[in-house]
Amino acid sequence: MDGAVVLDKPEGITSHDAVVAVRRMFSETRIGHLGTLDPFASGVLVLLVGRATRLARFYREREKTYEGAIRFGFSTTTFDREGDPTSPDRPPVLAEQELRSLLQEFCGTRPQQPPSFSAKKISGVPAYRLMRKGRAVALAAVPVTISELDLVAIEGPLVRFRTRVSAGTYVRSLAHELGQRLGVGAHLAQLRRTAVGEFTEAAALSLASLQEKVRRGENPVIPLRSLLPELPGIPLTAQQVVQAAHGRDLEIACEQDLVRLLDPEDRLVAVAVRPGRQPGNFFHPLVVLRAPDDTSPGID
């Protein structure tokens, strides 16, 4: 099977655990995810399967959408409910209008400090491993973009929110920073990812549902031809399919610089790019998904 699976990751397991479970279901080692979810978080975990793993590079900048709750009153070592308290618990006074104004201040592009307990690497070692060994970790701030940050409800010290952010944004850090601004401390209490780019929770399957589909012989995988829908699909002749499969340049009339190349049966052959310094409408296959001698009907 080649394509994508939208998994509804449950709380309590790592993203790696979820990948391992699906590898066993599919008897397929080539499975990777498009952005980790912390163990306490749930929601959309997109898995690329088989040849689709070659397309991961095109998904690195996808926006992500979350719903969750911030617990105001004290901060923690991990910036979420899993960490140890780093400040006394002080009952916060949360005014709706003040909160709405504060959330809007955080929208836009700004530097963000990643949590010390994170998978960010220092000299090849994840920061969280160094922290667990008692070593101080200082991670450089990185620019992130928060496109939406909306107040949903105030429930005592809990503030429920909805946000849409750029790749690389830590919602845990956002919760911590909001607590600092209000002067009462805060941490992320709940988090659910509802979308990764075009992949939404409406299409997400639980591990149990996925297992049942596999047991019944159903194919739960989104096919290759349905991936990267924002790129124009260019139909190829049989001769051009062979050229693309060999990685040879093709002349294509198209205004965009990145395209999907499709065979006469509408199956994805390659993703091609217009070389920057080459004149004319020539495109070079950047990622080839079909071997030159592959005529299998099951590729897509």
What does this structure look like?
Helix content is 19%, strand content 32%. The chain is of the alpha+beta class and 300 residues long. It has three domains: 86 residues, Pseudouridine synthase (2-Layer Sandwich), CATH 3.30.2350; 133 residues, Pseudouridine synthase, CATH 3.30.2350; 58 residues, Archaeosine Trna-guanine Transglycosylase, Chain: A, domain 4, CATH 2.30.130.10. The strands form three sheets. Strands 1, 2, 3, 4, 5, 8, 9, 10, 11 and 12 form a ten-stranded mixed β-sheet that branches. Helix 1 runs parallel beside helix 5. The termini are close together. The mean pLDDT is 90.
| SSE pattern, N- to C-terminal | EHEEEHEEEHEEHEEHEEHEEEE
Highest-level CATH class of the largest domain: Alpha Beta
Record field, number of beta strands:
17
Q: Total helix count?
A: 6
Biggest beta sheet summary: 10 strands, mixed
Count of domain modules: 3
What would the average pLDDT be, to the nearest integer? 90
Over the alpha carbons, how many angstroms does the gyration radius reach? Answer: 22 Å
CATH superfamily of the largest domain: Pseudouridine synthase
The CATH architecture name of the largest domain reads 2-Layer Sandwich
CATH T-level topology of the largest domain: Pseudouridine synthase
The shape is elongated
Strand content: 25-35%
Question: What class would the helix/strand composition place it in?
Answer: alpha+beta
Give the termini separation: 8 Å
Say what oligomer this is.
Answer: single chain
Helix content range of the residues, please? 10-25%
Low-confidence stretches: none
